[in-house]
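Lab meeting tomorrow. Please check the following:
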Amino acid sequence: MFELYCPGINACGKRREVSKSLALVRRLIFLGLVALSFLVAAPASAGERIALVVGNSDYRMVPKLANPANDAADMANALERLGYSVKHLVDLDYNRFRQALIDFGNAAKSAEKAVIFFAGHGVEIDGKNWLIPVDAAIKSEIDVYAEAINLETLIDISVMPKVIGLVVLDACRNDPFKATNVAAAGRSLVSRSTPAKGSAERPSRASGPPAPIATDMRGLAPVEVSDNVLVAFAAAAGTTASDGAGRNSPYSGSLLRHVETPQLEINYLFRIVHDDVWKETGTQEPAIYGTLPKADIYLNGDAAVAMSDGGADAERVAWEFVRSTNEIATLRRFAVQFPAGLYTAEINDRIAQLKTAEENAWTIVERQKSLAAYRAYLDLYPYGEHVESARVTLASLEKSARSGPSGGQVDMPGPPPASYQLASADTTAGNSESVEKAWDVLKESRDQGVVGRFAERYPSLRHNRLPPGSDLALRPVNSTDWMLRTSQDSDVNSCFDGDAGACARSVKTYPDYVQLQFQLCRSKGNPKGCMINAVTEARKRGLLVSAYTRSEEEKVRNREYRRVVARVHQNVGNVVSGVVSNVVGNVVSNAVSASVSAAASNAAANAASRAASASASHAASRAASWAASSAASRSASGAASSAASKAASSAASNAASRVPIPSDVRLKEDITALADTGNGLRLYRYRYRGDGTFYVGVMAQEVAQLVPAAVSRGMDGYLQVDYVLLGLEFLTYRDWIARHSHSALH
């Protein structure tokens, strides 16, 4: 880079010092270039508008396309004129496409608006939408998992920006494995082994609009997206798009003509494009998917400022859901959030009524202390202030009166009916901020009817607000998240470069990142059965459930997965209590049952404590408090239940905690972050599905990132954690609270 010129030997007498200076200059320049590259790749600043524009034309294994490179170049120029920071890329192979999405995804986290434009080959295969890199070698449908980019990755990234994420696909093509003899009249994807006669990519304009598209050309599958995301297809789901006869495709050409129009609201922009394309082709009908908020959004211009009162709007949104609940805590949060609101007086009256009715009911329960009384209370007041105590006592009574009478019916006052009008309300939110303010009131509610209905009305992947049973909620693993989190791992990057050894190591490190297994097959030359086995195994584990596509095939697959999930949830008690029955059940429950069943309450407590301690000394280390307590309360009989609960708590610190604890996030619900540990892990309060007791522990998926040696997979397929290896204890929430001072909790 620099040349040292010496006119004479004396002039170079200090050559060594000059060489050192030159080395320093070179180093400074290198560091400057590194810093510059860091600034270029840095995340978007607040309010920034960013765009990723990709045009794939020069395909190697399938027919080339004439226009995507032109479409992308012209779109990149248009977006730059609109003030977007544009990354324009052409003819991306798989790994370059992946790296581009990683960089763009990191930038999108802090952007205001983000646009992804892709022109090239795209197909729907196996119920999912795929974008085809130029190096894709797709010989069968199963190959797309290793060779193509899933549209869901682009949508996941588009959820991140604050105002809008827009995905534009001029790539709605046919499925080559459903129509192998289709004439190459548009941006179709057909094998080069069966090219159309003359390999003509475009029809002649002189002959008029293209002929109707064959019915076996399925195009892309429709998508359902939430948040402020729009996905625009050049052709409606199930149909295909034309490459066009001019410089641009009909779709890109129309979009280019209108995208720079000032103050053209985005929904109207795509309506105009739709009409243009339909008029030009006579067959191609573009489509958009997604629902934007009421406020106007522009690609050229700023969003309209909502004139409504955000606080009043949020109150109206929350009111529709709050007014139907009997949970006092949720009503109180509403009153605190909107102290001078329209419904303050009604809410306060409702709280007073519910509190009086519950206290009267609890007085009856404490007087009778019968099975029927506790059951009636739990049925009428599932969110009451005495629920935890009622559950514990009821469990004890049920075990001590297995064959005895239940106590008959109890006349107990239920929650009084609401005095205010419960007719439907107008809850159209003026902007997303109002919805999120309302959600702040409702998200901690134990009334799942309130939470579930709100999530159905206002679903949000960005805010982790997903309706129960939705495809987004069912997706146990987000491959996009894995892609972004592992982008700095050298083995992962080498794997995508084709290093089979790096793939093998990466698969072992990140077993839930299924794309690594597919790349392992690819790096080995896809030996017979490799991809089929990898995809089959991933599907069995529920890792390939589509989050966005709605093809008929995917609907069927998702319904089957829902049935599997339902069965798992029904048996989750067995999954969780497997450790209980095998470890603590033998350590505590049997000893308590044998020692205490015939004893009186006080004697039983002493016997249980001695039996549990004696048994615990032969166990591996410490029993999880939750496991011991659960096993004791479920297995002991008579007065043993109360005694076992005490015995379990004292034995918990000394019994068998060497056995891994089920800690998979998929087994848990009502999750709340509590604190961070000294080794970088986070503790959560949660309960297992189907279990009312709250525990404090870690999430196996997070532990796998920091201490992978502490995580293993059980026979049931769920992740479990060795707490001893982490230097932590697994406790009930009640025990955890008892060990922390009031100030520490705050």
Observations:
- Residues 476-544 form one domain.
